[in-house]
Design goal:
90 residues; 2 helices; 5-stranded mixed β-sheet; globular; single chain; alpha+beta; Ubiquitin-like (UB roll)
């Protein structure tokens, strides 16, 4: 199962400056685990020590927020995930 992940620009340096990564999985959590397997440096930027998404990370599946299911949200072959960071500014 092939899932495309669009990576927020602030995280791209952790995945060889790529904007897109290909992962596999049947849930958002499995896809993110595959992303971490491929690029271990991204793990601490997405997850806390308990394995939950950091509060400023939001995952979209085909442009729809994965909340409230988040990591348990099912995905299908060809879906597109987007990792976004909630960044405050003024």
């Amino acid at each position: 199962m092939s899932i495309t992940v669009n990576i927020h620009q602030a995280l791209r340096h952790l995945i060889n400056n790529q904007a897109i990564a290909e992962v596999s999985g049947t849930t958002v959590g499995e896809c993110l685990a595959d992303l971490v397997r491929q690029f271990p440096g991204i793990e601490t930027k997405l997850f806390n020590k308990k394995g939950k998404l950091l509060n400023y990370v939001d995952i979209y599946v085909n442009l729809e927020s994965s909340y409230p299911e988040e990591l348990a949200k099912p995905v299908m072959d060809g879906d597109k995930l987007s990792i976004t960071l909630m960044i405050a500014g003024g």
